[in-house]
Amino acid sequence: MPESATPVTPVTFPASFLWGAATSAYQIEGAVREDGRTPSIWDTFSHTPGKTAGGDTGDIAVDHYHRYRDDVALMAELGLGAYRFSISWPRVQPTGRGPAVQRGLDFYRRLVDELLAAGIKPAVTLYHWDLPQELEDAGGWPARDTAYRFAEYAGIVGEALGDRVEQWITLNEPWCAAFLGYASGVHAPGRTDPAAALRAAHHLNLAHGLGSVALRSVMPSRNSVALSLNTSVVRPLTQSPADRAAATKIDDLSGGIFHGPILRGAYPATLLEATARVTDWSFVQDGDLDAIHQPLDALCLNYYTPTVVSAADPDAAGPRADGHGASAHSPWPAADDVAFHQPPGERTEMGWSVDPTGLYDLITRYTREAPGLPLYVSENGAAYDDKPEPDGSVQDPERVAYLHGHLAAVRRAIADGADVRGYYLWSLLDNFEWAYGYEKRFGAVYVDYASQERTPKASALWYGRAARTGTLPPVEPVDSAE
User: Which NCBIfam families does the entry mention (predicted)?
Assistant: First the structure.
């Protein structure tokens, strides 16, 4: 095809495109002591003074455990075609070992049945950061055995739900689990050991590989096995060799450390070299890379904002503006020579810049790096300071504009040849936002935390129209003076 005939961005999305929303168990379920569930690392962390904003916990969250039928009805009313949720590991296998608690599995059986009856396709994430506390006490993700415990758990859930759930995601954002949990300590379990964080990353990779095998051993072959990565879209501040080297280092630590072994069966040589002063990588045993390098049926991508870096000024001092919470300890092992920069322009309540081009770049990158592998956007969204109007409605024009811009970027990537098969808005509901407690609202549905009343925001109604029609409705311009 000549260059002049390059296809223009289509007006509509493919008819088979999945329009969904996503949540995670600890952020929405509550009921932390019901039906045999025992504490996860997030129960312990959130109950530790000073770890979360306002001392907030997920004890009740938005009570989805008791309100799931109403929440599914709300999804159906909005016109969603898919729902990505996570399984609470300590609800299913309380100690992280041994047989399942059927009362815990029964909740997810009921949820899946309710979704299917409403015509909504379920997508299961097995691990969204809620490691059983007993496994953390035994060493957590830096301990090799945790990967084998995960594989056992994956087989249990796959056998229980694999006849009705076709889309499976082993891990959500293993970067956060490894580096925010074990290096900077801003996430559970709150440890600050960079060498342990690198071990955790490897064992999360191993868990994905072993878990994939376990899932496929108990499920129909038609089912899809994937994982969700939040690889940073890293941009050097300038094109100087020093800034480009800084970008390579952060790209290796956010993406290459996972997609290297998962997609190619090897860690990047630049990663191993850069982190050699932190660890000798002797925890990588013979056969591990083959175990990790399992075939994928799809790759899921989470995106919120790009990352801008430069070589650090040795005389500069101040907080690290990487967007991942305040800590005296860096989530980037062996990267103290890298400086992070806030791009100019619009930002969300998280302080993250709004830049849909980053999502386009992320999609097209993996289209090149994993040709032929279907892609999903498994998380994308924004936090804003949403408040009900006097009439009870919740107007969030900034989020509508955010979604329009990012979905347009997805549509552009599809037009340019990317095989993107679905999009999951983060998040369906306002919820417990990890260390930020209930201060940050990512939901398309507003939740009054005192009454648990749900109110679809303007963005939910807009997104529902997009889901029903396969097109992007127009948006009203946001008055930046308001």
Answer: BGL
Q: Does 187 carry a binding-site annotation?
A: no
Q: Any binding-site annotation on 102?
A: no
CA proximity to 42, closest of 9, 272, 448, 32: 32
360 annotated ligand-binding residue: no
CA–CA distance, 403 with 396 (Å, rounded to integer)? 11
Backbone angles phi, psi at 124, to 5 degrees: -100, 130
Give the three-class secondary structure for 84.
strand
pTM above 0.85, yes or no: yes
Contact 175, 148 (CB under 8 A): no
CB 37 within 8 A of CB 91: yes
Q: How far apart are CA 411 and CA 425, in angstroms?
A: 15
Is 462 assigned to a binding site?
no
How would you write the pLDDT of the chain (482 residues) with one tens digit per residue?
333 334 445 468 999 999 999 999 999 999 999 999 999 999 999 999 999 999 999 999 999 999 999 999 999 999 999 999 999 999 999 999 999 999 999 999 999 999 999 999 999 999 999 999 999 999 999 999 999 999 999 999 999 999 999 999 999 999 999 999 999 999 999 999 999 999 999 999 999 999 999 999 999 999 999 999 999 999 999 999 999 999 999 999 999 999 999 999 999 999 999 999 999 999 999 999 999 999 999 999 999 999 999 999 876 666 688 999 999 999 999 999 999 999 889 999 999 999 999 999 999 999 999 999 999 999 999 999 999 999 999 999 999 999 999 999 999 999 999 999 999 999 999 999 999 999 999 999 999 999 999 999 999 999 999 999 999 999 876 554 33
DSSP labels for 103-160?
HHHHHHHHHHHHHHHTT-EEEEEEESS--BHHHHHTT-TTSTHHHHHHHHHHHHHHHH
Residues annotated as part of the active site: 173, 379
C-alpha–C-alpha distance, residues 454 and 431, integer Å: 11
Q: Which two tokens stand for residue 239?
A: 């094109």
Cβ atoms 230, 254 nearer than 8 A: yes
Q: At what angle do helices 458-469 and 397-415 cross, to 10 degrees?
A: 30
Q: Residue 481 corresponds to which tokens in the numbers above?
A: 């003076």
- The reply, when asked if residue 433 is annotated as ligand binding, is yes
Question: Judging by DSSP bridges, how do beta strands 338-341 and 307-311 pair with one another?
Answer: antiparallel
Q: Which amino acid is at 202?
A: H
Q: What is the DSSP letter of 183?
A: T
As given in the structure block, the two tokens for residue 141 are: 């993700």
